[in-house]
Design goal:
heterodimer, A: alpha+beta, Alpha-Beta Plaits, four-stranded antiparallel β-sheet, 4 strands, rod-shaped, disordered N terminus, B: alpha/beta, Rossmann fold, six-stranded mixed β-sheet, cell division (chain B)
């Protein structure tokens, strides 16, 4: 038995063909950052959708009392009318005490008792088939209630726009980090090939095609990126799980409600990192081999 | 020896293995290393290339191995234009030849076995299909007990024998060797010469660049002389 054949054959490329431990560290950090960007985008999107859904399921009606009628009476009449409209789950007149409690954090106690407050009715709509603002207005008009319906659409659009922007920014951060990882691999491939010039020439003169040589570097950096990507993703998973554990279902902040499934979504990261590295290394290697003439 | 040249089985007359017509080559600092070189190596021929240091022997071998391309003239290998062939076509030419470099060009991180098997491995052959041939070849060049040794642990002569084993293990149609006996003792030199003669008898075309003219005379090969950038002798 040939001793050298008892185990696996040594790879044709020597180990550490070009600063590989450092490259692995860089890719792991980039993957960690990309994973956090992805989790951030998911959580921001989830928060925005949650807020928008909540806003869609509510409306606020401002009531103006008729002559001879108090504001509380007008609000109570409006609430009664709205409660009977299809798509409304509950309508409740807001008493002065509740309205003052809402304003107190901004205005304080000093002027609050003298402040004229609008008479409001909060309407909880059916989440699946909410009543439209038009149908609410019509019902109020039919009942002879002078009122303005606010379905929060203005605020909801702002929330959705902001959430969309945050998601796009997070996605851009993810793509930029992936691009940076690709550039790092391409640079390392070129450096590795420069350091292994004599070996590449030997391989060429022994009949290796450019594709075969590029494949060696491609495989080396692809596997390296997969390992580094796994390390980066694992670290990001631990951070995500810790944040979820710390903040519970609501998240550490309402703006970033992290879930357990977010950690699982990061599992394809090693595959993505390997794919980016494979492509980057192949292009860099073939370009360099062509440049050798 | 189980290694067989691919051409041995052919019956039709083979084209000349090497044809150089008016080949010129130079570097930026030395533009006329080779000038108007005309050279024909018929299939199955055995030639020694001699000449003073700096005459351009290594450069001529680089042209034949397609490590460099001629700047003037034509270069045909195995009856096909190799001088202006696209880069993608070069591996096919190189797989039909074995090269022994003066500086051996062994891969230090690979064992002697893996170094000798490199051309076979690069061609995609399976380990099972060549391990016996490689082992036999290494045994023949006296490295049978050092299959697992890496080049840094080998002497100069052992490295040279390993480089020769790698060049001939595929049974190439053309062997190009640059000073293949330069680092071995006289006994091993004769043994290696016998290996080249055996391969030549099997149909392999052989070109050896060497300072040792006595070796060339003992081999019975045709002597070519390279001087002032031109080749004399042989069938040019």
């Amino acid at each position: 038995m040939i001793p050298g054949l008892t185990g696996r054959r040594a790879p044709i490329l020597p180990r550490d063909a070009g600063g590989e431990p450092w490259l692995a560290a860089v890719i792991a950090v980039l993957c960690f950052l990309a994973c956090l960007s992805a989790v951030g985008a998911l959580a921001a999107d989830r928060a925005a959708h949650g807020w928008a859904r909540q806003l869609r399921a509510e409306a606020t009606v401002q009531v103006r009392p008729r002559v001879g009628e108090t504001g509380a009476e007008a609000a109570a009449r409006a609430a009664e009318t709205l409660a009977g409209v299809d798509g409304v789950e509950e309508a409740q007149a807001m008493d002065r005490k509740t309205a003052e409690a809402l304003l107190r954090p901004w205005i304080g106690d000093a002027v609050l008792p003298d402040l004229p407050l609008p008479f409001l009715v909060t309407v909880r709509l059916d989440r699946d088939a909410p009543a439209s603002p038009v149908s609410l207005s019509r019902a109020l008009a039919s009942a002879g209630v002078d009122a303005t319906v606010d379905d929060h659409s203005l605020w909801r659009r702002e929330v959705e726009r902001s959430a969309g922007l945050i998601t796009v920014l997070a996605a851009a951060a993810f793509l930029l980090t992936a691009g940076a990882a690709g550039a790092a691999v391409a640079y390392a491939t070129r450096a590795g090939m420069a350091a292994q010039g004599a070996l590449i020439e030997t391989l060429s003169l022994n009949g290796a095609s450019d594709g075969r040589i590029a494949g060696l570097f491609q495989m080396r950096y692809g596997l390296l990126a997969a390992g580094a990507g796994a390390a980066g993703a694992l670290a990001a998973m631990l951070v995500t799980a810790f944040v979820r554990f710390l903040g519970g279902a609501e998240g550490v902040t309402p703006a970033l409600p992290v879930t357990w499934s977010d950690a699982l979504i990061l599992s394809p990261c090693p595959l993505l990192a390997a794919t980016v590295a494979l492509v980057a290394a192949r292009f860099a290697a073939l370009a360099r081999l062509k440049g050798r003439g | 020896m189980s290694v067989q040249p691919r051409r041995a089985a052919e019956t039709a007359p083979a084209p000349d293995t090497v044809r150089l017509g008016g080949v010129g080559f130079g570097y930026a600092e030395t533009p006329d290393v080779l000038r108007d070189v005309n050279l024909i190596l018929p299939a199955g021929s055995f030639h020694f290339l001699t000449g003073p240091s700096g005459a351009g022997k290594s450069t001529l071998l680089k042209l034949l191995t397609l490590a460099e391309r001629p700047v003037a003239g034509s270069l045909e290998l195995f009856g096909e234009d190799a001088g202006s062939a696209p880069r993608s076509a070069l591996p096919a030419f190189r797989r039909r030849m074995g090269v022994v470099f003066q500086d051996f060009r062994l891969l230090d991180h690979l064992t002697a076995f893996d170094n000798a098997a490199l051309p076979l491995r690069l061609s995609g052959a399976k380990l099972d299909s060549y391990s016996a041939d490689v082992e036999e070849m290494l045994d023949w060049v006296g490295l049978g007990s050092k299959l697992d040794a890496r080049p840094p642990a080998l002497s100069g002569g052992e490295k040279q024998r390993l480089a020769i084993a790698r060049a001939v293990v595929t049974g190439p149609e053309l062997i190009v060797a640059d000073e293949p006996t330069g680092s071995v003792d006289a006994v091993m030199g004769e043994r290696l010469l016998k290996l080249f003669q055996t391969l030549n008898k099997l149909g392999t075309t052989i070109l050896i660049a060497s300072h040792d003219e006595s070796l060339a005379e003992r081999s019975g090969a045709t002597l070519l002389r390279l001087e002032n950038g031109r080749v004399t002798g042989g069938a040019a």
